[in-house]
Amino acid sequence: MAEQFAVTAIPGAETGEIPPSPVDRDEKTAFIYSLVDPLWDIDTLPLTYTNSRWSAFFYRADAKALRRVCPDVLEIEDDVVEFWYVDHNHTMLGPYGEMGVTVACSHKAGDGKTYYAGYYPYMYLTQDAAIDAGRVLGFPKKEAFIRVLEHGGAPDDGYGVYDTKIYQFDYFSFLMIRNGYVIHSATGKYDDADLPAKPKFYGNTEYGRMNMKVVTAPDVSSSEWQLIYLPSTVTKGLATLMNRPDSEGSHRFQVKPESIRTASANSIDWFMQATPYDNLGHELPPTELLGLMTFSFDLIIPAGETLWTETYTRDATWAGAAKPYRYGLRQRFPKPIGLGA
Amino acid sequence: MGQSVNVTSVPWVDSGDAPPLPLDRDRRDIISQAIADPLVDYDIVPLTYTNSRWSAFFYRCDEKDLKHILPKCLELEDDVVEFWYVDHLHTGLGPYGEMGVTVSASHKASDGNTYYAGYYPYMYLTQDAAVFAGREPFGFPKKIAYIITQEHGGKDDDGYGGFGNDYFNFTLERRGYLIHTATGRYDDAELPAKPTFYGDPRYGRMNLRLITDVSLRTTKWDLTYLPSEVTEPLAAAMGRPETVGQHRFQLKPESIRTASANAIRTWALQATPFDNLGAMMPVKELIGLMSFSFDLIIPGAATIWSQLIERTDEDLGDLLFATPYQYTMRHRFPKPPGV
After folding, report:
1. Chain A, nearest residue to B322 by Cα
2. DSSP codes of every residue in B167-199
3. What strands lie across the sheet with B167-174, from one edge to the other?
């Protein structure tokens, strides 16, 4: 006879730390599927991050390449690109690694107003809830293997250098792999140099963030493109909802100045390649590497605003590009080993 | 001086093995974000699967539990649940592991038709492209998890294949918590019951998709429906007109193995802080296991029911369950090793 073991209590439900399933709540509070057990739920909102560690490579990219990766509704504002990794420790979505590219852009809206923002053409994360939470806001997130390391050079009393907020690690290593292919790796040593240039949106509260969200109909007959905008400062509504009225008007992204380390271009070894699955290395190669800036920060992510939409339709003859049962190099990729997401 | 190497060519675009870059194509060929490099691209459409291996546990579930987890637009049709693992080898999305639960249900549509289908309340997969190809646009409720599906032993092996498959082992883990594991040995017994939808082409598949606006002001609920048979347009799109009317899911009868409830040596199912399957659908009576190999085609889905939820400022406040900066057991979970 089979030995059966069933644990039917949900840990944390009895203490109120975990919300009831959406099937046991007002249906107005169901917003992500599955209905009975959403990939992420209302206990992530408002979405806050504490003491994450940002490492941003700055490089110049060709103006033509930048024009190409940004949608037509955006104007390019700067040729300095931010190519960043993040080690998120304490967030409402759990800890995760992240990598992305931000380009300074603007959008002239129908109401005559010009919106400035960092636009994300590429993003990668290490776990599913954070990917989906981002994709709902239009962030173009994929899953990848990401390593973010800083090490060496700091005194260590055995109780954690980070915990005492001493940011003295001298060496760094960053790595991103997806579907078995290395997309990027960079290693080096901080030299705390003054960097010759930074992206235009650094320290400029005029710049929010923008994404291009694509919503496709279940029958694939149409896709709506939505240009999404997140302002850079905390609005009154968000400050109230967080019960932190003092935060109104402050930047959503709070850099901790004492945590900044930099590396000049000469202190960085850099490898990047395009792969069959990810074209970043092809579309946005550096024309000039400027350096690396690493810092710790806190962050709040609010709901977004849709600035522009356009719908593309497909008729019944649209059949995609696959040759059924003839698997190409994008289909027979190595089986993911483990994948402890 | 730092050394810099940039490999800027995209492998095998020139040979046609990989599709042209999204930015070099008609915009209607972009079906997911990012527009510069979509997570799910048009070279997966039409979506076909070859020689996947399905392992379905059947169990009876309390009717109250089943009605509890079904959306209000569905009626329950059967108390026998399919609790399945799949080892996908050759698919348009690459190989991956999968686990899910299917419940027999029906929907009385406003046009008077009653649609019968297997409804999916839970699904887990091992890789991102397959998860989001399912979630966006079809509404499959997929999450990413660590999944093991193993069959092994019981046959002489000359090193050239023909491996034995008398023993089985399945495991599902997510965020450091074990959700399910089952082990045992096939005894090829007749199983006393199967879910209603087994062998019944009336039964398609249904999902409930929730699309929330970026302002969180609205959520559209779509009940999506996939018919069980290949339609004429799908057959034409695949270049296989002879498949019209065939079942999309082609089971290979010679590959079937079964295990009675007694041959399932261990079964552990638990609710975790992140996944409530063990709490919502506990086993009332374990019936057995059926494993088989199959081919599959997944087409576009029809939307057979919708509703729009609108939120006031007060309703938006109700979405904010968390206490900012006070992290609970669902927030400070262990950092995932590797991916």
Report:
1. A43
2. EEEEEEEETTEEEEEEEEE---PPPS---TTTT
3. A3-7, B264-270, B177-185, B167-174, B146-152
What size, in residues, is chain B? 339
Is A207 in contact with A233 (CB distance < 8 Å)?
no
What distance in Å separates residue A200's CA from the closest CA in chain B?
Answer: 22
Q: What is the model's pLDDT at position B337?
A: 45
- Cα–Cα distance between B37 and B43 in angstroms, integer? 13
Give the closest-approach CA distance of A155 to chain B in angstroms. Answer: 25
Which chain B residues have a beta carbon less than 8 Å from that of A6? 268-270, 278, 282-283
Chain B hits for A304, CB-CB cut-off 8 Å, are 214-215
Q: Are B130 and B96 in contact (CB under 8 A)?
A: yes
Strand stretches in chain B, DSSP E = 4-7, 47-60, 75-76, 80-88, 90-91, 96-108, 114-125, 142-144, 146-152, 167-174, 177-185, 203-212, 218-226, 249-260, 264-270, 285-298, 302-310
Q: Give the Cα separation of B19 and A337 in Å (integer).
A: 26
Least CA distance to B11: which residue of chain A? A276
pLDDT, tens only, B286-318: 999 999 999 999 999 999 999 999 999 999 989
Q: Which residues of B touch A45 (CB under 8 A)?
A: 319-322
Whether A86 contacts A52, CB under 8 Å: yes
Using one digit for the tens of pLDDT, what is the confidence trace for B149-179?
A: 999 988 776 777 667 899 999 999 998 899 9
CA gap B72, A217 in Å, rounded = 22
Question: By the CB < 8 Å criterion, does B8 face chain A?
Answer: yes
